[in-house]
Amino acid sequence: MNENKKVVRKKLKSAAAVSKFMADYYYELNAASESGSPKIAWCTSVGPAEILRAMGYLVYFPETHSAMLGATRMATDLIPAANALGYSPDICSYLTADIGAFLKGVTPLAKVYEGISGIPKPDVLVFNTNQCRDVQDWFAWYGEKFDAPLMGVYTHRNVGNVTGPLIDSIARQMEELIGPLAKIAGKPFELDELKRVVALSRECSELWKKILETAASRPSPLTFFDAATLMGPAVVGRGTQYTVDIYQDLLAELEERIQKKEGAVGDESYRIYWEGMPVWGRLRAHSELFAGLKANVLASTYCNSWIFSALNPEDTFNSMAQAYTELFVVRSDAAKQKYIADMLDFYKIDGIIYHDAKTCPNNTNCRYGMPQRLEKTTGVPSLTIQGDLNDLRLLSDEQTQTNVEAFIEQLEERR
Ligand code: SF4
Question: Which of 394, 393, 389, 397 lies closest to 67 in space, CA to CA?
């Protein structure tokens, strides 16, 4: 893709520390899985991780594993194995790739981390339906496979205003998890420990927000494609001091870039917003495609999903309920439209890329007139690319390249 153009993309030094963090994270899980201690809880990516961590569980996130299946381009070949069990090719390709990998006995962890041969076994699986229903079915399948208890939080979706009764209903559901989780953990719940974890998670969230907001500088020191990888610690490690330390260093590096006016993409001419899931198997190709056109895809709804500004250690359950309900993916179209418009303004965006991810309607927001409505109110044009997060059969590289090149030309003509 885009072989003829000179591509200048600058690597961040902190990326190595993030890679080391992820290695440490998976080795710790692997050791626990082999020895049986500490206990392991599986959690959805925007699920109640703080509760689990505060109760002494190591927390494993199957979505991150499936994103690795996508990034290593293993996913596409594994999906049919899950289809054969009755999981449709049209549903979440995180789910189908991940279950397919398990059925085939393969994992990218074994390729990347020497000595790890499989995913960690769950002692309990905890989901939150705030993002979609697929996670519940996904976890239910594994719960049965490992004969492990399954529990969850049922969050309302298509939420306009996040009201008191709504928060209350989620907070009470979270509280109800405590008894069964303490029994499985074999130790009592300590509120002070939850407060400590929530405080660290909030600190992580604040740092991650500042990291993403550095992209408002011109030129931006960060790209969406870098952020999609750098967000690993925010997803799997929020609530730990290690994550806070990593992000303090990353933020310092980005601030240094800003001072030196050093952009992540050489000669940044167009500022682009990415709406929707990444195409994990094309992260690098897309990064090079845009950089080759002097376009920086510098901000996204997706990476913002791990900002939990409502978290408050003095009001643990209510604040977790609010943080996990006010997320973009949970909200109504009107709330989403306002959010994107605010982002376009904050990051001084020239154009939007909508990714129509065929197997994830939940993170696809271009099917009901949103691009047209937003262009009318903000004047910012957009391009929709057809694709998927994991299933590479659902995209055409040639078409994406042609459409993106034409879109950037269109931005140039508007100047
Ligand atoms: S939000 Fe989309 S990608 Fe994530 S688990 Fe649900 S269907 Fe899959």
Answer: 389
- pLDDT, tens digit, 9 for 90 and up, residues 80-129: 999 999 999 999 999 999 999 999 999 999 999 999 999 999 999 999 99
**Dist. CA 164–CA 191, nearest whole Å:** 22
Structure-token pair, residue 155: 């969050």
**CB contact at 8 A, 383 and 404:** yes
Q: What are 186-201's pLDDT values in tens digits? A: 999 999 999 999 999 9
pTM over 0.90: yes
Q: Please, which residues have CB within 8 angstroms of residue 180's CB and are 6 or more apart in sequence? A: 124, 149, 151
CA of 86 to the centre of ligand 1 (A): 18
| Gap between the Cα atoms of 299 and 287, Å rounded | 13
Q: Which residues form ligand 1's pocket by a CB distance below 6 Å?
A: 63, 92, 94, 131-132, 134-135, 360, 362-363, 389
Token representation of residue 357: 């991810």
The Cα–Cα gap between 98 and 69 comes to 7
Which run of H or E residues covers position 88? none
CA pair distance 208, 11, nearest whole angstrom: 18
Alpha carbon of 274 to those of 122, 193, 282, 374: distances in Å? Answer: 34, 37, 14, 14
DSSP 65-109: HHHHHHHTT-HHHHHHHHHTTT--TTS-HHHHHHHHHHHHT--HH
Give the mutation target among 360, 391, 394 for probing the ligand 1 site: most ligand atoms within 8 A of CB: 360
